[in-house]
């Protein structure tokens, strides 16, 4: 279900390293963990997303003959290495936090255990998938927190960074609690509810705005949402009131209007009043245009009479924080814990588990331990793939429910778009000892 | 050459509008223009990029039977409309600024002329492709301006927003003057030079750093670039000096070292000194980690002895300006100019041409006129597709040359990463008259 399945979608150094691993017999079992080093300043927590596409990528991982030919020729790679690549499959194990799990800095959300060469080769694409969907789910959930109970539709495909970004943003934001998307292909691939209205061109190509509204309504009698800001918004709202009785006679209700520009608060108030005075109290008001969680908070805080929002560009690009500082790092090789101590980019050694400790139904703190230690609390990492086979597939509804349930158990101070003091994440004594033994 | 070719990669409203167009016979010829409303605060100019992928998309545009089946069922669309979609091809004309052209706010960079329904349907994906590649080329050229003559390699695939973003970022940054990319698939698809070193895992899986360096060098004797910041950077640089004679005896030169963390200026100076004192004056220094045009300017301004840079996350996400405020708007329908006057999002009516006026070999100003008027200067929009067929394909080398030549003719005040007073773009009297006739 990923758009691009080529095994060459990786960094060159992965292939040159793998060649050296193979040359020197470095093919023992390795474990890599993926984590986010620091939360962005504007995020109190993150939402794990993208695992389904990662597992699909691993199941399908193989080089095509065309790719191998090209690589052998262009890189002058030895035939024995090409044969090694030809036979390569992902037959390893994966543990992960299920999608919809909330997590914090330094907590591993995914662990790959496989022979070193293949565990290395899959790094680039795993990060590419997981960081983006996690980024978007973590942004989208803030919109949900900012506009509780409102209709939220993902609108960002056109300014998402390419096709796959648009598809994954639709999926990740739906996972995070959005009502649906405008992205038709995402609707087909991921079974996400679709929403749409009309664009300015529809109005522009008519000589009279009223004719545009009538034409659209008669073509889509069950879902009449009219765009009213092409020229003069209040005038268009009055036109809506004027044509409503005509359509009513034909059995057509005007379900809503959309405003896409200008001062949304001011315009929404004017339009609401015009509609109400015209007897269209049930016609809803939908708005779009440069929206994000900050603007939603502002608009709803000022009492804007808006029932639904299309959130696009700033969501799909996660505009205030366009990337996560994440890494996929070797934590164990040939049975021995591994770490790195690069300045500002150090990693913790050993395969890890994360436990979440609840008190009175509320998450109090997380504890990172080595994977085989018991601990109080609920373990968050679960086995999701064994010997290259997925263990189970969860329906999207389960992911949405998980996120909702976890949000409900989050400390209220974090359940807001305001920056909050960090949630406590403890590192177990065993990990600290391992680290001091290795760095000492 | 796009990753995703489905015609359903669009917004739902495009399909609902098209259905209404067809219902009401609104199938005359329409022209839409794509432009950027405002330059981002941190950009003095933009670089047109992505046209090749747009034209490929238009040539291949069609609905599959599977897509039509799904759409008919899930949207309850009438059979006549499904038949219309089944037969739909893009057989229109396209004018555009060739890739590598510099442009400014409000200037159309692409014009599509085709029957209204199809010109409408292709909007979403055209913006999706053009805005991202233009965004990245416009960011990458700033890195080139900030680090003239240095080796610049695009490193961002892992934190790009999905697969296609990674591929398009490699292409757009190469177009803008980068030396190459780490993205192997981009190398294959777009014939871009590939670069790569090693990752920390390669060092971590060895017991001794020196062994890791020796193993890597012996596997890749022609391209030895060693990553020296896994544990202690100066110590690793001394290790490089120690093993150099061993490798020399085997006929292997250490071409370079890479630093990926810490204070790059300080570390680069220490490492340069250690290498020079060890006789490795020809071993180059390559760095990466949180780089962008601002950091490059800072490092090189302080005299950092760094020969090449891997620029990744902040380039591929265009982190300081993660999107362009661009639009694709109807400018003419059935032979009549069209506009919209939405607050803050007004558009200029009529098919347009942009002329660039040079004086003493330097670009002085641009003039936007109606497409059929003559004007002083050089016209920037050219016919690139006629009746659905591409007119010519340009090799990447020509695009890179065009950009270089245009940069050389740009006023020096704009040819910097410092914000400069805007380049003058004039609107012709004809367009102003058209606008005042329509709004008046």
Q: What attributes characterize this protein structure?
A:
homodimer; 440 residues; alpha/beta; nicotinate phosphoribosyltransferase; TIM Barrel; 2 domains; seven-stranded antiparallel β-sheet; six-stranded parallel β-sheet; 16 helices; 19 strands; 40% helix; 20% strand
Explain what this protein looks like in three dimensions:
Two copies of one chain form a homodimer. Chain A is an alpha/beta fold. Chain A folds into two domains: 12-136 and 321-439, Alpha-Beta Barrel (nicotinate phosphoribosyltransferase), CATH 3.20.140.10; 146-316, Aldolase class I (TIM Barrel, Alpha-Beta Barrel), CATH 3.20.20. The first copy, chain A, is 40% helix and 20% strand. Chain A has 16 helices and 19 strands. In chain A, the strands form four sheets. The first copy, chain A, has a seven-stranded antiparallel sheet. In chain A, helix 3 (65-75) packs antiparallel against helix 4 (79-87), helix 7 packs across helix 8 and helix 10 (209-219) packs across helix 11. Chain A is elongated, with a radius of gyration of 26 Å. Chains A and B meet through helix 1, helix 3, helix 6, helix 7 and helix 8 of A and helix 1, helix 3, helix 6, helix 7 and helix 8 of B.
Give the helix/strand layout.
Two copies of one chain form a homodimer.
Chain A: H1 12-23, E1 29-38, E2 46-47, H2 51-60, H3 65-75, H4 79-87, E3 93-96, E4 102-103, E5 110-115, H5 116-121, H6 123-146, E6 151-154, H7 163-175, E7 180-181, H8 184-190, H9 200-204, H10 209-219, E8 224-227, H11 233-249, E9 254-259, H12 264-277, E10 284-288, H13 293-301, E11 308-311, H14 313-316, E12 325-333, E13 336-337, E14 352-359, E15 362-370, E16 378-379, E17 382-386, E18 389-390, H15 396-408, E19 425-427, H16 429-439
Parallel strand pairs in A: 6-7, 6-11, 8-9, 9-10, 10-11, 15-19
Antiparallel strand pairs in A: 1-5, 1-12, 2-4, 3-5, 3-17, 12-13, 14-15, 14-16, 17-18
Helix pairs in contact in A: 2-6, 3-4, 6-7, 6-13, 7-8, 10-11, 11-12
């Amino acid at each position: 279900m990923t758009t691009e399945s080529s095994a060459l979608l990786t960094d060159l150094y992965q292939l040159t390293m793998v060649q050296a691993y193979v040359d020197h017999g470095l093919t023992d079992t390795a474990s890599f963990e993926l984590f986010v080093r620091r939360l962005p300043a504007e995020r109190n927590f993150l939402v794990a997303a993208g695992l389904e596409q990662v597992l699909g990528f691993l199941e399908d991982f193989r080089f095509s003959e065309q790719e191998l030919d090209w690589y052998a020729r262009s890189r002058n790679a030895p035939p024995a290495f090409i044969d090694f690549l030809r036979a390569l499959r992902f037959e390893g194990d994966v543990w992960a936090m299920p999608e919809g799990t909330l997590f914090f800095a330094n907590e591993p959300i995914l662990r790959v255990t496989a022979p070193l060469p293949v565990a290395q080769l899959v790094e680039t694409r795993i990060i590419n998938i997981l960081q983006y969907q996690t980024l978007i789910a973590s942004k989208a959930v803030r919109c949900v927190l900012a506009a509780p109970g409102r209709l939220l539709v993902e609108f960002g495909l056109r300014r998402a960074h390419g096709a796959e970004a648009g598809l994954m943003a639709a999926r990740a934001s739906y996972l995070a609690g959005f009502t649906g998307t405008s992205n038709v292909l995402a609707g087909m691939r991921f079974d996400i509810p679709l929403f749409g209205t009309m664009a300015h061109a529809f109005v522009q190509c008519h000589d009279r705005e009223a004719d545009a509204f009538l034409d659209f309504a008669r073509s889509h009698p069950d879902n009449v949402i009219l765009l009213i800001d092409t020229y003069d918004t209040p005038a268009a709202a009055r036109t809506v009131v004027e044509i409503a009785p005509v359509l009513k006679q034909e059995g057509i209700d005007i379900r809503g209007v959309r405003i896409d520009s200008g001062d949304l608060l001011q315009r929404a108030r004017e339009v609401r009043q015009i509609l109400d005075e015209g007897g269209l109290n049930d016609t809803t008001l939908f708005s779009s245009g440069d929206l994000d969680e900050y603007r939603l908070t502002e608009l709803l805080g000022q009492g804007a009479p808006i029932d639904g929002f299309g959130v696009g560009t700033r969501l799909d690009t996660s505009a205030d924080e366009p990337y996560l500082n994440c890494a996929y790092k070797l934590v164990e090789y040939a049975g021995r814990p591994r770490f790195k101590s690069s300045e500002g980019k150090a990693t913790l050694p050993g395969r890890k588990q994360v436990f979440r400790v609840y008190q009175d139904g509320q998450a109090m703190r997380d504890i990172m331990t080595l994977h085989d230690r018991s601990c109080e609390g609920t373990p968050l990492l679960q086995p999701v793939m064994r010997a290259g086979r997925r263990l189970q597939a969860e329906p999207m509804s389960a992911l949405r429910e998980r996120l909702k349930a976890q949000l409900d158990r989050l400390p209220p101070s974090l359940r807001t778009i305001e920056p909050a003091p960090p949630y406590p994440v403890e590192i177990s004594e065993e990990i600290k000892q391992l680290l001091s033994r290795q760095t000492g």
